[in-house]
């Protein structure tokens, strides 16, 4: 694995206390013993205490152990619900590998993820936001050679396993004790190949990440995180499941984002921290202005995941008078590569902050990073081959420059669109649409959008005019079972696509033309 190949860096991580000889399971047991009544997760009216979380997670862990071997993959495709914390910790206590999956994904993506990870169990809602997950899992599992057991949380199980069954008379047995350097999470990220790649994290890579957050984001025991970001993202998962135990905080979950509701919730629960992509900050600021509150308990807002306008950071800093508002940079592979510039408002707005525990270098303009919080590799070793350089630095595919000791991300070499903080692989969409009726050639690119950061635009050379529109593409992609957030929001009809001498489509030229047209 890239990090462990260097014994000196491993020794340094342990010496600095970033890596330790214990796991989150040990921390949960200690918390239940020392502060049994402390609330770790708040989900509407439901409160999970340290003792309650240990009791529920232990019961679930025993059921998991009776059904599968240690190290098996346990997936959950849940909204920001308290049951997800039980699943996360139950799998941890049982020595399983957790696999968070975005609820916004559909048949096409889910079929690949479950098969690729060889998931042995998946937790889903019965229905959520009008979508029938129970029915979708019937369709998906019918196509798999080794389908996982499907557990339905909240709602009609529709022939699957009801969630409460796993807590009825848990079978006796002993739980596997995982080592802190064992893989405990596989989280998928969109890649330029069009095939999602499974990012592997250990107890210790995540522990290092949490230590960095503690030391750089003004986190103290008793603080409260508002968590609207999806728990299937690395950010949402650590704020909801890791920080409450490792840092003594409380996670206030929001199952769906509503800025006005968030302001009311943050005021009532005296939330001190929040992190999210640009639209979260824009909408929270507007809602707070409408409510005439400066959220006096808010200490820190961390903004990343998409293009962040400096003017937005300045406006939010001026309005939230007690809070430090800062841009940061990171990825699923190297979470929180930079920690922001919380004590330097100008650099907080103009740059993406300075590195924390990660080392960052620029090679021909490309950002490369390594550190104790980085992935230990991808699920498939072949994905590692071009992802790391000879010194073990992760090739981010992003471009940047230095402003003193602060980093400025200037663009992306990788062909990824980031819309509302969600990664979209253009190649995946292009492959599904290529050859469809009316399409001779297609290139999907991201163009700036004030509301979502970026939006997907499909540039099409049609077989005949006028060519397909957004509704036509939506029908095709939905028929493939593609998640709605990946469907292009704009179509441009061109006579040809710009290419180099080798025939490669020049997407930077396409983006430049579309961006210029938008500004006219």
From TrEMBL:
Keywords from the UniProt entry: Ligase
Pfam families recorded: AMP-binding, AMP-binding_C
Ranges for domain AMP-binding enzyme C-terminal: 428-504
GO terms for MF: medium-chain fatty acid-CoA ligase activity
Annotated ranges, domain AMP-dependent synthetase/ligase: 29-379
Top-rank taxon, per record: Bacteria
Signal peptide region: none
GO BP terms, alphabetized: fatty acid metabolic process
Annotated family: Belongs to the ATP-dependent AMP-binding enzyme family.
The protein's name: Cyclohexanecarboxylate-CoA ligase
Organism: Mycolicibacterium litorale
Lineage: Bacteria, Bacillati, Actinomycetota, Actinomycetes, Mycobacteriales
């Amino acid at each position: 694995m890239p990090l462990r190949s260097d014994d000196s860096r491993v020794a340094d991580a342990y010496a600095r206390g970033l890596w330790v000889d214990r796991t989150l399971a040990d921390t949960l047991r200690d918390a239940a013993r020392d502060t049994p009544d402390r609330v770790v997760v708040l989900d509407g009216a439901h409160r999970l205490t340290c003792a309650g979380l240990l009791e529920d997670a232990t019961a679930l862990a025993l059921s998991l152990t009776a059904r599968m071997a240690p190290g098996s993959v346990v997936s959950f495709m849940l909204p920001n619900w308290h049951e997800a914390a039980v699943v996360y910790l139950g799998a941890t206590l049982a020595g399983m590998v957790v696999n968070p999956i975005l609820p916004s994904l559909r048949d096409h993506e889910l079929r690949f993820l479950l098969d690729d990870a060889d998931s042995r169990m998946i937790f889903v809602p019965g229905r959520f936001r009008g979508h029938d997950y129970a029915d979708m899992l019937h369709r998906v599992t019918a196509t798999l050679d080794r389908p996982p057991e499907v557990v339905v949380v909240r709602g009609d199980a529709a022939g699957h396993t009801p969630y409460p069954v796993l807590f009825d008379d848990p079978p006796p047995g002993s739980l596997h004790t995982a080592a802190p350097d064992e893989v405990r999470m596989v989280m998928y990220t969109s890649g330029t190949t069009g095939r999602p790649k499974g990012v592997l994290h250990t107890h210790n890579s995540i522990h290092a990440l949490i230590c960095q957050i503690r030391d750089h984001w003004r986190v103290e025991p008793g603080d409260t995180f508002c968590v609207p970001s999806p728990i299937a993202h690395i950010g949402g998962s650590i704020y909801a499941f890791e920080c409450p135990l490792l840092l003594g905080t409380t996670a206030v979950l929001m199952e769906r984002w509503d800025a006005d509701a968030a302001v009311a919730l943050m005021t009532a629960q005296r939330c001190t921290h929040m992190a999210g992509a640009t639209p979260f900050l824009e909408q929270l600021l507007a809602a707070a202005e409408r409510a005439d509150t400066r959220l006096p308990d808010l200490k820190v807002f961390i903004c990343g995941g998409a293009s962040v306008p400096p003017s937005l950071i300045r406006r939010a800093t001026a309005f939230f008078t007690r809070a430090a508002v800062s841009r940061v940079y990171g990825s699923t592979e190297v979470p929180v590569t930079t920690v922001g510039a919380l004590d330097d408002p100008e650099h907080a707005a103009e740059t993406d902050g300075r590195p924390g525990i990660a080392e960052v270098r620029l090679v021909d303009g490309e950002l490369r990073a390594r550190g104790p919080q980085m992935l230990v590799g991808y699920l498939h070793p072949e994905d590692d081959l071009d992802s790391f350089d000879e010194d073990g630095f992760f090739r981010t595919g992003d471009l940047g420059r230095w402003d003193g000791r602060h980093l400025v991300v200037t663009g992306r070499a990788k062909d990824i669109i980031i819309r509302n903080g969600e990664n979209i692989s253009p190649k995946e969409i292009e492959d599904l649409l290529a050859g469809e009726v009316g399409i001779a050639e297609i290139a999907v690119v991201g163009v700036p959008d004030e509301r979502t950061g970026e939006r997907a635009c499909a540039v099409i050379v049609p077989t005949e005019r006028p060519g397909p529109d957004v509704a036509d593409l939506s029908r095709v992609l939905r028929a493939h079972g593609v998640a709605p957030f990946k469907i292009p929001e704009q179509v441009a009809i061109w006579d040809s696509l710009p290419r180099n001498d080798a025939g490669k489509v020049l997407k930077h030229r396409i983006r430049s033309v579309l961006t210029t047209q938008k500004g006219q």
